[in-house]
């Protein structure tokens, strides 16, 4: 639809002004926010099933807000309130029937998150014919329980048939990874593993208040400040970053900025930006944590070259230490044996892990079986700017496709083994040889 | 309906200082007014529909503003917002509407016969004339807060009301979600189509939820009277035509509005109005008349005169580019309209436009002949 900007030409929001309050103008980051999937590593340390946070149970009953907002809607029939999803193509729209809406519309989680909160982003963003977006988010840990009737089928559809009775395995022992230290650096330019974590006792980014978000930031900064050795580092709050610091973080490809994706904006994650958002990284610039972006924490380990084993080892070590520090403060990470690590977007459940490399595969990528091979290896490709970007110079971002139902070690193993194979194939094609005997079976 | 954290049950677990937004880099009316004390007093209140202080201010927190343009930074979710949160809204209104006090009364005058002149603006200079306003329907939450059920009910009521109009007002409704490509092209060509807001100010207030559900455009066959349904307000009513006959535009505006209001009243849903704030709308800047009446007028010489801004201020007018607010003028053509909304009546505001534009066209003609305009410069109205 052609846009008429006559009333809304907002030149007032020029990038120069926006920069002054801590917004980055780095364009490639924007691509990240159209990601249909996010991956996180899971961290096997919480073997307890979810416990109610004591403060939550005590005080919810004294809140004056109740669910009056929801009760007003209840004056209208389910049919009058049910969203029009006829032009929609996302996981939520495929699953949410009017009958289901009727059953769930009167519910809320202890923090007051309702069904309409869960689905708003999917209603506002019908989706794209080629990319299947999720279309729903969690506002707190209990969302996945209170609204399981909606979220279980979404999870099953998104995560390859994962059933409500399935158990997810967590394995963050880097010793269990075989190889991964010898990917050919002539082809593998860089290696990276990332995940997310939610801090128990707080609402998630679509729903948290400023007070909660600031509490998360405070906790995180204290925990990260206690790291030492090669993990010793510094926190840069978005709202009082100097221009010099900002530029450096952009050059390091570390800076994240206010989401522009309508998928994220519609779910309310960008409220109060840039309050209580920030970036922490170690002095070596190989371990990085984002605070209060799309999840409470995003943890990233990265370095140039092909030593994925080292990247993964640092990743696991760092995560383990951080989790201990949080536990010592009385705030474990959200985890359960069915969903693994609980995150804002259902696509990130389980390990929440995306491990990948930037690798040169100019010949391979032109091979007619490239997509098929990736699929069999349970890998996915992206451009080096992130999801929805194109590859430049034959360099691809190759990472694991799965998130839930496989452990962290298993996923990174797939990356390591798969990339090794792809490079072998690339070398054969360079010599003009066939690769047919190398094509793998479906993993 | 809830958007974001505003119905987060845990907010009150946190102290006032912990929840109070950081407004140090902000430059909007809300930020100028909202102190920790006011926040403490209002943070646990809600309107009957469940609208809270955080709902009211979210757009202003998310959009710090601009050093040159003072945005409002707060919105109403329902009629009661202006009462429940008056400690915030009254000073914002006072600041925005030239000192309008909490005890002041607003005068409504939609009798087009009270307008003097306005039918003889020189068409060599005045290209088009337009008057717009907004209306909110009593009994429903406003666009930042309404549910799909409410919004659809507003649409249904509006379409029934508009379809019962006849004569010069006979027309047709085009819902956004089932518009054909041909209809869409035509509405764009007519400059009638509105689409999903892109302004972060509106998006942050939640007005674009469920787009394009229950949104649409109604216009009469002559294409001189147009109503937007469920955009930034329940209704936006526009009367427009080419040329300088503002009197005719205003007549049609008043007659059409009065007819529409009658029909809504018959259905027991009058427009939100009170004698202090006049017509109640989503944005505090639109309270009172909600009226913006203006013309597209050629003023290439006058616009370059050093006293142009001063003259506009004295005439109580404002300028915009022909693309609307924040656009630049093209070819010396400006959109000149009334600056006031609250504290003066519709007739008075359109009178300012008519008299002011007539004067400026006179000045333009003088400047064309190389004559001085000092004798014409008016006193402050």
UniProtKB/TrEMBL annotation, chain A:
E.C. number: 2.7.3.2
Residue span, Phosphagen kinase N-terminal domain: 73-160
GO BP field: phosphocreatine biosynthetic process
UniProt organism field: Pygocentrus nattereri (Red-bellied piranha)
Domain Phosphagen kinase C-terminal: 187-429
Ranges of biased composition (kind: Basic and acidic residues): 159-171
Reactions accelerated catalytically: creatine + ATP = N-phosphocreatine + ADP + H(+)
Binding residues annotated for ATP, in chain numbering: 190-194, 253, 298, 354-358, 382-387
Matches recorded under InterPro entries: ATP-guanido_PTrfase, ATP-guanido_PTrfase_AS, ATP-guanido_PTrfase_cat, ATP-guanido_PTrfase_N, ATP-guanido_PTrfase_N_sf, Gln_synth/guanido_kin_cat_dom
PROSITE patterns, sorted: PHOSPHAGEN_KINASE, PHOSPHAGEN_KINASE_C, PHOSPHAGEN_KINASE_N
Enzyme class: transferase
Protein name in UniProt: creatine kinase
TrEMBL record, chain B:
Name used for this protein in its record: creatine kinase
This enzyme's EC code(s): 2.7.3.2
Cross-referenced Gene3D superfamilies: ATP:guanido phosphotransferase, N-terminal domain, Glutamine synthetase/guanido kinase, catalytic domain
Biological source species: Pygocentrus nattereri
Keyword field: ATP-binding, Kinase, Nucleotide-binding, Transferase
Keyword Nucleotidyltransferase: no
Keyword Disulfide bond assigned: no
Residues covered by the Phosphagen kinase C-terminal domain: 125-367
Coiled coil: none
Family assignment from sequence similarity: Belongs to the ATP:guanido phosphotransferase family.
GO cellular component, one term: extracellular space
GO molecular function: ATP binding; creatine kinase activity
């Amino acid at each position: 639809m052609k846009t008429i900007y006559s009333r809304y030409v907002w030149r007032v929001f020029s990038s120069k002004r926006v920069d002054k309050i801590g917004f980055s103008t780095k364009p490639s980051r924007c691509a990240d926010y159209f990601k249909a999937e996010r991956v996180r590593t899971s961290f096997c340390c919480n073997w307890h099933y979810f416990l109610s946070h004591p403060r939550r149970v005590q005080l919810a009953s004294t809140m004056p807000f109740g669910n009056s907002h929801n009760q007003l809607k209840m004056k209208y029939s389910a049919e009058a309130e049910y969203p029009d999803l006829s032009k929609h193509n996302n996981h939520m729209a495929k699953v949410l029937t009017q009958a289901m809406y009727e059953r769930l519309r009167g519910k809320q989680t202890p923090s007051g998150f309702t069904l309409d909160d869960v689905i708003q982003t999917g209603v506002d963003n019908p989706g794209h014919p080629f990319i299947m977006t999720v279309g729903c988010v969690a506002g707190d840990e209990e969302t996945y329980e209170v609204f399981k009737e909606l979220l279980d089928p979404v999870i099953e559809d998104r995560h390859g048939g994962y059933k409500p009775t399935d158990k997810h395995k967590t394995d963050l022992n880097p010793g269990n990874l075989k190889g991964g230290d010898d990917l050919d650096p002539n082809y593998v330019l860089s290696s990276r593993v990332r995940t997310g974590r939610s801090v128990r006792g707080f609402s998630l980014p679509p729903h948290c208040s400023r007070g909660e978000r600031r509490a998360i930031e405070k906790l995180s900064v204290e925990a990260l400040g206690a790291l030492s050795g090669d993990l010793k580092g510094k926190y840069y709050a978005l709202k009082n970053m100097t221009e010099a610091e900002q530029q450096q973080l952009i050059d390091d490809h570390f800076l994240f900025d206010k989401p522009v994706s309508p998928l994220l904006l519609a779910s309310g994650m960008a409220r109060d930006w840039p309050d209580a958002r920030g970036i922490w990284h170690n002095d070596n610039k190989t371990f990085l944590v984002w605070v209060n972006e799309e999840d409470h924490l995003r943890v990233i380990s990265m370095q140039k070259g092909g030593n994925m084993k080292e990247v993964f080892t640092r990743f696991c070590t760092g995560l383990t230490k951080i989790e201990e520090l949080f536990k010592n403060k009385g705030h474990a990470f959200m985890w359960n044996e069915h969903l693994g690590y609980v995150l804002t977007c259902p696509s990130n459940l389980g390990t929440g892990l995306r491990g990948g490399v930037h690798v040169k595969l100019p010949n391979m990528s032109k091979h007619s079986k490239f997509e098929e091979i990736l699929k069999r290896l349970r890998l996915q490709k992206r451009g080096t700017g992130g999801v929805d970007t194109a590859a430049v110079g034959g360099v691809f971002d190759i990472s694991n496709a799965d998130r839930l139902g496989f452990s962290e070690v298993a996923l990174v193993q797939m990356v390591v083994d798969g990339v090794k194979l792809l490079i072998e194939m690339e070398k054969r094609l360079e010599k003009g040889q066939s690769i047919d005997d190398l094509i793998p079976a479906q993993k | 309906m809830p958007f974001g954290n505003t119905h987060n049950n845990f907010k009150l677990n946190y102290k006032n200082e912990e929840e109070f937004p950081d407004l140090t880099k902000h430059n909007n009316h809300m930020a100028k007014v909202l102190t920790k004390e006011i926040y403490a007093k209002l943070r646990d209140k809600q309107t009957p529909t469940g609208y809270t202080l955080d709902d009211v201010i979210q757009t202003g927190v998310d959009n710090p503003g601009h050093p040159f343009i003072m945005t409002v930074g707060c919105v109403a979710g329902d009629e009661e917002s202006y009462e429940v949160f008056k400690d915030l809204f009254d000073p914002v209104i006072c600041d925005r509407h030239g000192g309008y006090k909490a005890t002041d009364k607003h005068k409504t005058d939609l009798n087009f016969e009270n307008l003097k002149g306005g039918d003889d603006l020189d068409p060599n200079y005045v290209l088009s004339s337009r008057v717009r306003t907004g209306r909110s329907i009593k009994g429903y939450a406003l666009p930042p807060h309404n549910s799909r059920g409410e919004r659809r009910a507003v649409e249904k009521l509006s379409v029934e009301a508009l379809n019962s109009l006849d004569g010069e007002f006979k027309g047709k409704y085009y819902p956004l979600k089932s518009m054909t490509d041909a209809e869409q092209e035509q509405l764009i060509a007519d400059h009638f189509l509105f689409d999903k807001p892109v302004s972060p100010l509106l998006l942050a207030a939640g007005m674009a939820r469920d787009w394009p559900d229950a949104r649409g455009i109604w216009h009469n066959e002559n294409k001189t009277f147009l109503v937007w349904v469920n955009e930034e307000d329940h209704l936006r009513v526009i009367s427009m035509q080419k040329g300088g006959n503002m009197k005719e535009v205003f007549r049609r505006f008043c007659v059409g509005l009065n007819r529409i209001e009658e029909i809504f009243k018959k259905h027991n849903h009058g427009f939100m109005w009170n004698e202090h704030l006049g017509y109640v709308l989503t944005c505090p800047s639109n309270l009172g008349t909600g009226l913006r009446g203006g013309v597209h007028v050629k003023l290439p010489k006058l616009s370059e005169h050093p006293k142009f801004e001063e003259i506009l201020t004295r005439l109580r007018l404002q300028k915009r580019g022909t693309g609307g607010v924040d656009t630049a003028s093209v070819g010396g053509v400006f959109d000149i309209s009334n600056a006031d909304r609250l504290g003066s009546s519709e007739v008075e505001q359109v009178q300012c436009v008519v008299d002011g534009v007539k004067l400026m066209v006179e000045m333009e003609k003088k400047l064309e002949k190389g004559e001085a305009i000092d004798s014409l410069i008016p006193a402050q109205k």
